[in-house]
Amino acid sequence: xxxLVLCHPYxxxxxxxxxxxxxxxxxxxxxxxxxxxxxxxxxxxxRELDVRVINPKKPKLSFLPVGIRNSVLSGIDYYLLKxxxxxxxxxxxxxxxxxxxxxxxxxxxxxxxxxxxxxxYDWKMSKRNIFQKALYWxxxxxxxxxxxxxxxxxxxxxxxxxxxxxRIKKYLNRESEIIHPCIDAxxxxxxxxxxxxxxxxxxxxxKRFEYVIDAFDKFKKANKPNKSWKLKITGFVxxxxxxxxxxxxTIKQMAEAVGDVEFVLGANDKQLSSLYANxxxxxxxxxxxxxxxxxxxxxxxxxxxxxxxxxxxxxxITKETGFLVNSPQEMSExxxxxxxxxxxxxxxxxxxxxRVEKYFNxxxxxEKFENAVNSINKKN
Length: 380
What we know:
Structural class: alpha/beta
Strand content: 15-25%
Distance between the termini: 19 Å
Radius of gyration: 21 Å
CATH architecture of the largest domain: 3-Layer(aba) Sandwich
CATH superfamily of the largest domain: Glycogen Phosphorylase B
Shape: globular
Largest sheet: 7 strands, parallel
Number of helices: 13
Helix content: 40-55%
Number of strands: 15
Strand order of the largest sheet: 5-3-1-6-7-8-9
């Protein structure tokens, strides 16, 4: 087995990317070079691995918005990073790909080109005032200039979905190979189908919580189901980001107006598994999601998923395991269908569990990943 070194900028949350990095590091017994590491808030298994923080004594740069500050500091970390004693450097999470400047050969597992700089650029800019636009614009242009100078040098690019593959081709002019991320299905289970819908995700605008709250409002007003149904939302709010804090306040007010919406912030793994295990179905509404670990976790919990008909979910959800919808109204109609037909909910849930076990297991992932690693030759 080749000797890998991993790079992932931020290890402080429990997300799909962090889970992939954890699994690869365990599989290859590989060190991880990161810019920010918070062992208290990410997966506890990282404590058992060799996690190395690049330049732990970073300048504060507190005068910059948190998004720019993090990108600048991590960008410098990887741009200047020089390593030895490895066969392949495996890059995850923007801007770790900049480590290719001084290190080769490189295998980039690209979840997506930086969305703030590319496909979400106009949407993000539309939400900023004139001062913020003037501040962000030069940083983004500088980022893209550096990106365009380094990405052509990367020996091989993997990605997670067709939507991400199309972005890599469109914005970076590179071909890539798709290897879907996976989950540990054995960590999820089904206890019951209680009368609530569930949406777990980071509390950020691009996850579009207002979509599911609107759908739940329409579901309630239809008044067809004969039980008192709820919508439960769990996630993490980055308190250092004013944009995310303001967004949370907005959806909280919206939820209060609708009623029967419950927020469970900072749920641990046990709480999260229990919320999956007892819901009737999982809702998923982000903007053109790169892939979608949440639908897979729903499937592993024997629960169907109702997701927007965009991005990664289109590759995950089939008509036997859930629904793809094009509006909050359509989502509410599918919610009503499941609420009125519990046997359909259970049948779809069983199909979903079979699908995740067959196509989204780590043995399947590493069979493809190892082939990619082995296809790259060490440069002299």
